[in-house]
């Protein structure tokens, strides 16, 4: 009898252990790869870069993109070709060395990462809706594939993001130091000495806009400008119920983006700190209840200036007005203003362009 009890206890413990292991495996099934980006027209090249999975010298790592010039169209773009990925692990350290071409300087840094923050974004997956064509119903899928993106700025600033198909989130900001001991001839044979490095850098900068070339020659690269892109505001999008807004996607000037699925979230607008937007995509219904999708693009400097007119920490409504008579391919119909307790700021002058299309399915 005692032996039977022992067997039962052992089997129970084994089942509990297996169940616990299975649960941990399910929770740890996320995977990630790497990317890099830069501010537009400020190219960089990674000489050596690793996202290290531990804190010991022999820890495994994933390479950052290297042997390619990174010159992003927009901050937050997943540029460069990563040479690896990992599953169920969170990086602990970023070790990186790169060339800032507009400065003709190399930077290096070893940074301890906010592992908890990174894992929190990955471990439970990233939810997004999809449209099931056979059933004509919306469903929810969880994405477990992520990208960790390092933005490289003149002056040696590094900003780290976690990307999923429905969001891009900043998880750290770091300051690298200038490194005059990088052996660039390992990457480019012509960069054997200072003269070779200068010639190669000048060649890579030939196609930059004249404004950037002038900054290089006049030593007026706007190092402080990029810090202003990361200012956040107590910003809440505001829409009218009759517009039947289903989805809003914001790309922000700080490189983050956010997808707000109102139709699946009881029309509740999430409250959080947000940067000024660079682009907005909004799905709504016209006067005939036809689903429409509008794209609105903002000028970075103008939208930033208008947002800076608000007071620190005050609540701001990002009020979206839609002309529901807007037809497909029309380039007007969306107007936007900032609304605070004591005033309104029209954002029309910051809108570069907009266009509207029909959208047969929600997602």
TrEMBL record:
Keywords: Signal. PROSITE patterns: PROKAR_LIPOPROTEIN. The keyword Signal applies. InterPro entries: DUF2931. It holds the Pfam family DUF2931. Residues 1-22 form the signal peptide. It comes from the Bacteria. This is DUF2931 family protein. It comes from Flavobacterium shii. The lineage of its organism: Bacteria, Pseudomonadati, Bacteroidota, Flavobacteriia, Flavobacteriales.
